[in-house]
């Protein structure tokens, strides 16, 4: 409208819609009718409203897909068959919580290692075999050696680093390296841990397939680790490894990472029909591992692909964050991690005044290198006034007031554990 | 669902008989009868789908919402005491699920300028085969107009604030009464009426550039 409506119009306008469908009490309608008799503007709006209401009613119901009731019945039956966890929808959970908040991660490295038998819970270094440079250094006891008690975390190379350049590495002290990766109450059993840490690197030559499944070791021997690492190729994909448990056939699994539009999806591709019955995702922080999600791979979270796709490389599947969000067939693991600091190279704004919480945290994260963990989408909340103080402290205060946790960037390691049904 | 049925003169005894059947199914489902819950799924999934579709603007999202709504309902069934009608309770669950989904879909609220310029990506309003197709007697030109009209309206609905969208969808598209909507949304009837009025006025503003199309 070119001119703002007069005060009387504004006052009566809210009653127009009800009047338009004859739902207004006559007592309330009388002053409106008097006004309408002399106001062309409101009369025109009334006509518009009547037209719109009529058109709305013409839309009618959409046909629900014919398969929908049976899909729902199957999902409910599956939920009913599970004693635990309760019949919530893991896929929904994952999509709802994880994807929206997984904002940028700079880089991805994938390290693959087998765990020792549950009795010892010691992380074993990668077994000899084809490796990338970083894994080789680790195995040789280099700077990033995966010595007991320390977990190697590869850091991002400088932006100018050539593709395949060696990442900077640092060791991250884990409070108790012998700590079980499983959450409290999880029963030990034959399982593999898949650790993924974050770095930024193009894949090193030959890093696509990182390990090979060798013959099982003797009973009681440490699990063999067909370890290795993977890197993210530019904006797209992924890595892989094949590993074996001490007994039973090898399990083929591939790490998958998708970087796109500043968001990171990280996951595990499991070939179907390998007997993998549970996948768990742990977030490992300096405070210890935290179970983020656990479920059956066919239901959610785990990207389960037909076996024939395994080994065909990143282009075998249309992987993208959008595909993950849209697909009914597969979903990527995305840790509930928002590395908000990556949002920009953009300089923090000069002035903070009712700035969305998400943006404030992003700026502060970029300044401090701290990472905000969010288990809900950060689409709400505004910071009205920035507290004074050192940026890291300010970030912690704001995050704490929003119920969010702040951790150092290099304290984060994802752990995907898949457990096979004992043969 | 009250209003449309009442407007269309559906006999009360038929509605009451159906309510009795549903109550019986709910009792059996609570007692562990899966077939009874399946029957409830069969009965209500089309309406729940429509609600979710209009709230989220995405067919795929709507399908997920239906599934999650029924799973939540199934999980919560032991706590359902029958104070409200099962349908109201289910729609309330579904509305929450759909609003969550719609919120995810938008990640950031739309600003007024985005609303005005329509820069937000168009929601997924593709329809499944057969939905809303023009009657066969329509000419191709008329059919195109109907489709375009329908599209601009559904897109505009997606741009309404969540509370307004929910009430407008429930009232104008789903045909619920004010009282039912109050029970579903947990708001008072007066609040429902007020939100509906604001929703329609906002819709009118959003559709202002398309009024000619709506008049055709």
Give a verbal description of the structure.
The complex is a heterodimer of chains A (423) and B (216). Chain A is α+β, with helices and mostly antiparallel strands and 423 residues long. Chain A has helices at residues 7-13, 16-20, 26-38, 40-59, 68-81, 90-101, 133-139, 321-326, 357-368, 391-401; strands spanning 109-114, 150-154, 169-173, 191-197, 228-231, 241-243, 251-260, 263-271, 276-285, 288-295, 303-305, 337-338, 355-356, 370-373, 382-383, 405-408, 413-420. In chain A, the strands form five sheets. A six-stranded antiparallel sheet of chain A has the order 5-1-4-17-9-10, with no helix packed on it. Chain A has a four-stranded mixed sheet with strand order 6-7-8-11, with no helix packed on it. The model of chain A is unreliable at 83-249, 259-264, 311-318 and 325-347 (pLDDT under 50). Chain B has two domains: 1-107, Orthogonal Bundle (Rna Polymerase Sigma Factor, Chain: A); 138-216, Orthogonal Bundle (Arc Repressor Mutant, subunit A), CATH 1.10.10.10. Chain B is mainly alpha-helical and 216 residues long. Chain B has eleven helices and no strands. At the A-B interface, helix 2, helix 4, helix 5 and helix 6 of A face helix 3, helix 4, helix 5, helix 7 and helix 8 of B.
- Tally of discrete structural domains of chain B: 2
* Level-1 CATH class name of the largest domain in chain B: Mainly Alpha
Topology as H/E string of chain A? HHHHHHEHEEEEEEEEEEHEEHEEHEE
Largest interface between protein chains, with number of residues from each side: A-B, 48 and 58 residues
- From the helix content, strand content and strand pairing of chain A, which structural class follows? alpha+beta
Fraction of residues in β-strands of chain A: 15-25%
Q: How confident is the prediction overall: mean pLDDT of chain A?
A: 50
Q: What characterizes the major β-sheet of chain A?
A: 6 strands, antiparallel
């Amino acid at each position: 409208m070119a001119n703002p409506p007069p005060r009387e119009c504004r006052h009566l306008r809210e009653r127009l819609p009800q009047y338009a469908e004859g739902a207004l009490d006559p007592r309330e309608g009388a002053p409106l009718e008097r006004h309408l008799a002399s106001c062309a503007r409101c009369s025109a709006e009334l006509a518009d409203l009547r037209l719109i209401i009529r058109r709305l009613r013409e839309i009618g119901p959409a046909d629900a897909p014919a398969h929908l009731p049976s899909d729902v019945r199957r999902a409910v039956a599956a939920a009913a068959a599970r004693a635990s966890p309760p019949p919530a929808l893991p896929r929904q959970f994952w999509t709802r919580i994880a994807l929206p908040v997984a904002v940028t991660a700079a880089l991805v490295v994938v390290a693959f290692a087998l765990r020792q038998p549950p009795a010892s819970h010691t992380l074993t270094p990668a077994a000899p075999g084809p490796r990338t440079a970083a894994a080789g250094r680790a195995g040789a006891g280099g700077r990033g050696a995966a010595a007991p008690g320390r977990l190697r975390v590869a850091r991002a190379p400088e932006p100018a680093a050539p593709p395949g350049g060696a990442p900077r590495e640092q060791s991250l002290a884990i409070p108790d390296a012998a700590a079980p990766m499983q959450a409290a109450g999880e029963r030990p059993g034959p399982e593999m841990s898949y650790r993924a840490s974050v770095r930024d690197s193009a894949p090193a030559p030959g890093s696509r397939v990182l390990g090979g499944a060798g013959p099982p070791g003797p009973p009681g021997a440490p699990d063999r680790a067909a370890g290795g690492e993977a890197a993210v190729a530019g904006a797209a994909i992924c890595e892989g490894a094949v590993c074996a448990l001490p007994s039973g056939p090898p399990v083929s699994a591939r790490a998958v990472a998708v970087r796109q539009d500043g968001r990171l999806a990280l996951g595990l591709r499991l070939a179907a029909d390998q007997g993998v019955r549970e996948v768990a995702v742990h977030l490992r922080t300096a405070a210890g591992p935290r179970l983020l999600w656990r479920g059956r791979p066919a239901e959610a979270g785990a990207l389960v692909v037909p076996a024939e796709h395994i080994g065909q490389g990143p282009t075998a599947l249309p992987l993208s964050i959008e595909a993950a969000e849209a697909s009914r067939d597969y979903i990527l693991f995305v840790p509930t991690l928002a590395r908000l600091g990556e949002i920009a190279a953009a300089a923090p704004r000069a002035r903070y005044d009712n700035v969305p919480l998400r943006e404030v945290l992003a700026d502060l994260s970029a300044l401090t290198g701290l990472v905000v963990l969010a288990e809900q989408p950060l689409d709400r909340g505004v910071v009205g006034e920035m507290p004074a103080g050192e940026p890291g402290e300010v970030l912690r205060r704001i995050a704490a007031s929003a119920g969010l946790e702040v951790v150092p960037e290099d304290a984060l390691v994802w752990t995907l554990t898949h457990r096979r049904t004992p043969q | 669902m009250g209003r449309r049925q009442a407007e269309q003169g559906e006999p009360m005894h038929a509605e009451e008989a159906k309510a009795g059947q549903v109550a019986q199914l709910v009792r059996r489902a609570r007692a562990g009868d899966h077939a009874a819950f399946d029957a409830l799924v069969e009965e209500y999934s089309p309406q729940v789908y429509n609600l979710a579709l209009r709230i989220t603007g995405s067919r795929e999202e709507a399908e997920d919402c239906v599934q999650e709504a029924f799973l939540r309902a199934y999980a919560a069934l032991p706590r359902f005491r029958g104070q409200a009608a099962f349908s109201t309770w289910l729609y309330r669950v579904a509305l929450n699920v759909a609003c969550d989904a719609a919120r995810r879909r938008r990640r950031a609220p739309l600003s007024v300028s985005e609303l005005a310029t329509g820069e937000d990506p168009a929601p997924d309003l593709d329809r499944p085969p057969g939905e809303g197709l023009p009657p066969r007697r329509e000419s191709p030109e008329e059919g195109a107009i109907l489709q375009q009209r329908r599209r601009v309206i559904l897109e505009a609905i997606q741009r309404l604030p969540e509370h307004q969208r929910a009430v407008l969808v429930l009232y104008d598209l789903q045909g619920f009464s004010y009282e039912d909507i109050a029970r579903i949304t947990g708001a008072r009837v007066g609040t429902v009426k007020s939100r509906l009025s604001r929703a329609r006025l906002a819709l009118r503003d959003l559709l202002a550039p398309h009024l000619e199309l709506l008049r055709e």
